[in-house]
Write a structure and sequence with these properties.
Chain lengths: ~160, ~775
């Protein structure tokens, strides 16, 4: 199948998004942080008068992060909400040379959760990303409450 | 045809369309309970709606059908052919009557009695088929086209698309405006852009109005409804409506109109007791029904409470058991709270007797069904002997929210304005802070209010000095009050709020996101959840019985006063009711000459008092604006301290007539200014609306320069045109007087030696005589 893919790098690894799912690739200018939001959500940004929720893909994978993500992000829409997926860099648009296939042994826990399988491209194999899982964040963070969530007031 | 009636027609027709299928199915299988229920609800709703209008036939028809169906529902009667036919004939008839109402024809009543009689199961078997045919033939639908429709119904999705399109357009416009500004002035573009922008604002306002309606529209019919019902039932009920300016989706208002009507009917019929019962129970004879609407987060809470006898738990329970909803064992385990919720079960009603007013246990299940449909909830809470409170929570689908933008650190947030009762600067001397454990309390006007720091709520900063902050006093829908400390308050603006991604919503502290005019996204706080997460929301309370009673008690015992420090540095107090507002004005507005001091406020000149020969402050002067309802005074103060209540005795002071007496406030003696003598001395009635008109001679320099100011100062409106009607006409010398005038005529002459008299007039520089004549004229007119 000749599906178009948006090729990107996440934590140095080659990853691919289905081009039909990516509305555009933007350069993020300003991000307003969201206090108390899960760690993998960097904040909100605006694109063409709409708010986007900015997701750091590396953190969503549960990877520990020392460097800032790249300025470019892939914009996807999931259930009516727009997200900007921060990646190291967006490389190119390429044609898929194969259907997504599982890799024996998997991609490792973090990647396995967000992957739809491996696709071959002219630039080499890449992990095809499941956007819905990517924006859901790592399960541990997703369910655990952050320390600030317990009440700090008193009952009136 | 007025709007209400149009809505009634549209609604009835819509319901008819909706149950058309049900009718056919029911006819085929009269034992079908679900179909029976929906037909029953239809006639019940029609009957209920008739209460607003004067359609006795419609009401008696629907009542007849309802009674018959209720019998069937209760299993006391079977749905035989006669009954089914009768009900169907009535439904057809309702449809025809609706058409007639719409076209404004007189309603035909022929055959109605017979239709009603058909449903009377004691009546003998009639030869109905032919007669029904006869009725059908008689009232065959007239073919005259109905008048041009004044309204159309549109699918809500379409409106939503238009709305969101317009919101996006506004944001895109803001974006473009920003870019235009950045690229410098371009006259060729700026003009058309301004125009576009103006048009867009109009469109936006119109689209907002398309969907939003003040909740007032829900309230409007309530007083009438309550009045009619209470008269009918021999009860005395007072209505208290609050929060009418909350805005709500039109659709939602329509959806909750019926539920609200049902609840009010029930409250008056079953809740509030008769005056005699109330007296016996030691309550005020007049029952109180109150309705409050508040926006909480992305929901609107409508609370309806009465101070009647409350729900009868025991009866509810036994009825539920009798109806097979519960077993005795289950009943025994239920909390009272849960028991109360039973009233929303179909077929349960605690009414001993079935009445015309609230029917027979249909209302509440319909109410809940209606609310379920729109994603709302309803809860009830009741205390025996004290009253019942219904809380309806309705989602706020629409997203233009009046918001207040605030900041913590360098980040901005929005707070829905409807919550914010007051904004106080943290350093205000009237505030007192206490730290108990880890909680902050602030004492404001004698109340201890829990205080949350937004910075701490958001984990942005651990410590904040509340004195440096601004406090938003937030009142929740439940009546709970707390203070939210923020770094700065910016502005209020209408915000187009969009939903947030689920992962962000999960934090519970945000209700949505919006873009500011500069294009930066900000978060709208969900104040209610923030309060709930911090344990600041009490369980639902019966507000009127609680808060209002307290206030009334307090009002009976104490008198609110405002404490201030006068220009001479002394503490004084004045009755709070006299204080209209506190103003700070530039000293340029003050005009002092000798004894007379005046100040210009909002284009009006008010007497300025309270200076006590003290020098004016350097630049700004702080004023209490006092009003006795007729005239206003400005009272200069050096500092406004706080509001308080007089709870100890006032010791009268004979020596100083300007004070009413001295009382103790917080252990300190404070003289209370006597409002009566203050207004008696300085008050000057500003009666622009009742001012008399005085016509002065036109084209006369003396009259313009001398007379005009004098007459105006005496409180007259001045005209020189002979066309205007005048109450008093001043003429000079030999000038002719209009013959047919009803006005008082004052003649002036310039001969100082001529005696002033009614015949020859007044010497033009005899000021006192002229003022006397004007005063006399006024006295004559106002009688």
């Amino acid at each position: 199948m000749n599906e178009l893919l948006v090729m990107a790098r996440i934590a140095g690894k080659r990853a691919a998004f289905r081009a039909v799912e990516v509305q555009s690739v933007i350069e993020i200018e300003g991000i307003s942080p969201i206090p108390r939001a899960p760690d993998f959500i960097t904040g909100l940004t605006a694109m063409r008068s709409r708010s986007l929720t900015v997701v750091d893909c590396r953190k969503s994978l549960g990877l520990s992060v020392e460097t800032a993500p790249g300025v470019r992000a892939a914009v996807v829409e999931v259930e009516g909400h727009l997200y900007a997926l921060q990646v190291d860099q967006v490389e190119d648009v390429a044609e898929a040379r194969s259907d997504p296939e599982p890799v024996s042994g998997g991609f490792g826990d973090a990647w396995q959760r967000v992957s739809l399988g491996m696709v071959e491209t002219d630039a080499g194999p890449a992990v095809l990303i499941d956007v819905g899982r990517m924006i859901a964040g790592p399960p541990a963070i997703h369910s655990a409450r952050k320390p600030g969530n317990e009440p700090i007031g008193v009952s009136a | 045809m007025d709007d209400l009636l149009a809505e009634f027609v549209a609604e009835t027709r819509e319901m008819l369309e909706a149950i058309e299928g049900e009718i056919v199915a029911w006819e085929a299988d009269p034992g079908d309970r679900a179909r029976l229920d929906s037909i029953f609800r239809f006639v019940h709703t029609v009957k209920g709606n008739c209460g607003f209008f004067d359609f006795p036939q419609l009401e008696s028809l629907s009542h007849a059908a309802e009674s018959a169906l209720a019998e069937v529902r209760a299993g006391r009667r079977s749905a035989d052919v006669q009954l089914v036919n009768g009900v169907l004939a009535i439904i057809d008839r309702i449809g025809r009557l609706t058409d007639q109402i719409e076209s404004g024809e007189n309603l035909t009543t022929t055959g109605d009695d017979m239709l009603i009689a058909m449903l009377d199961n004691t009546a003998e078997e009639t030869s109905e088929p032919q007669e029904i045919q006869a009725v059908e033939a008689f009232s065959a639908r007239s073919n005259t086209p109905s008048s041009t429709p004044r309204s159309i119904r549109l699918p809500v999705e379409l409106l939503d698309r238009v709305m969101s399109g317009v919101s996006d357009m506004v944001l895109a416009r803001n974006d473009l405006a920003r870019r235009l500004r950045a690229s410098g002035s371009e006259p060729a573009i700026d003009g058309p852009f301004e125009r576009l922008s103006g048009i867009l604002n109009d469109v936006r306002e119109a689209t907002t109005r398309m969907r939003m309606q003040r909740i007032e529209h829900l309230y409007n019919p309530v007083p009438r409804l309550v009045r009619d019902l209470s008269a009918e039932l021999g009860k005395q009920v007072m209505v208290d409506l609050e929060g009418e300016d909350a805005e709500m989706d039109r659709e939602m208002i329509e959806m909750i109109r019926d539920p609200v009507t049902h609840i009010i009917r029930n409250a008056i019929d079953h809740g509030i007791e008769t005056p005699a019962e109330r007296r016996a129970a030691g309550k005020h004879e007049i029952g109180l029904l109150s309705m409050t609407a508040r926006q909480s987060g992305n929901r609107i809470a409508v609370m309806i409470s009465d101070d009647g006898k409350g729900l009868d738990c025991a009866r509810l329970g036994s009825k539920a058991v009798a109806a097979g909803l519960l077993t005795e064992a289950q009943l025994a385990e239920m909390s009272r709270e849960d028991l109360h919720q039973l009233i929303f079960e179909p077929g349960l009603s605690t009414a001993e007797t079935v009445s015309e007013v609230s029917g027979r246990g249909v209302g509440m299940d319909v109410v809940r069904a209606n609310l379920d449909k729109i994603g709302g909830t309803i809860r009830v809470r009741s205390t025996p002997g004290e009253g019942t409170l219904f809380v309806l929570e309705i989602p706020l689908t629409l997203s233009i929210v009046a918001g207040l933008t605030v900041s913590v650190g360098d980040q901005r947030f929005a707070v829905p304005r409807s919550f914010v009762e007051e904004i106080i600067h943290g350093a205000a001397s009237s505030l007192e802070y206490t730290r108990l454990g880890d909680a902050d309390l602030v004492t404001f006007r004698g109340r201890r209010i829990p205080c949350l720091s937004l910075a701490r709520v958001l984990n942005m900063r651990e410590v904040s000095d509340l004195r440096q902050e601004t406090l938003l006093l937030i009142r929740l829908g439940t009546g709970d009050l707390f203070a939210l400390a923020v770094d700065r308050v910016f502005d209020h603006e209408d915000l187009v709020v969009k939903p947030l991604a689920p992962a962000v919503m999960a934090t519970g502290i945000y209700a949505g996101t919006t873009l500011l005019d500069d294009g930066s996204p900000i978060l709208m706080l969900d104040v209610y959840t923030i309060a709930a997460q911090n344990g600041l929301v009490s369980e639902v309370r019966v507000r009127p019985a609680g808060r209002d009673e307290q206030v009334q008690h307090a009002a009976a015992k104490t008198r609110p006063i405002m404490l201030f420090v006068g220009m001479d540095g002394r503490r004084r107090a004045i009755d709070m009711n006299l204080v209209r507002r506190i103003d700070v004005l530039s000293r340029d507005a003050v005009d002092i000459e000798g004894e007379r001091a005046q100040i210009v406020i909002d284009g009006a000149i008010l007497p300025l008092i309270g200076l006590n020969d003290q020098p004016l402050p350097e630049d700004k002067i702080k004023l209490l604006r006092l009003s006795d309802g007729h005239c206003e005074l400005a009272y200069a103060v050096s500092e406004v301290a706080d509001a308080a209540a007089i709870d100890s005795a006032i010791v009268p002071s004979d020596a100083d007539p300007s004070i009413e007496g001295v009382t103790l406030v917080g252990g300190q003696p404070v003289p209370i200014i006597d409002g009566l003598s203050l207004f008696a001395r300085h008050g000057r009635t500003i009666r622009t609306d009742t001012a008399l008109t005085c016509r002065l001679p036109a084209d006369d320099d003396w009259s313009r320069t001398m007379l005009h100011p004098l007459v105006q100062a005496a409180g007259y409106r001045i005209t020189t045109s002979a066309e205007d009607s005048a109450d008093v006409i001043i003429v000079m010398e030999e000038q002719a007087v209009p013959a047919d005038t009803a006005a008082t005529v004052i003649r002036l002459h310039s001969d100082a030696d001529q005696p002033g008299s009614a015949d020859c007039g007044i010497y033009r520089y005899d000021r006192d005589a002229l003022l006397g004549a004007l005063k006399h004229a006024r006295a004559g007119k106002s009688q």
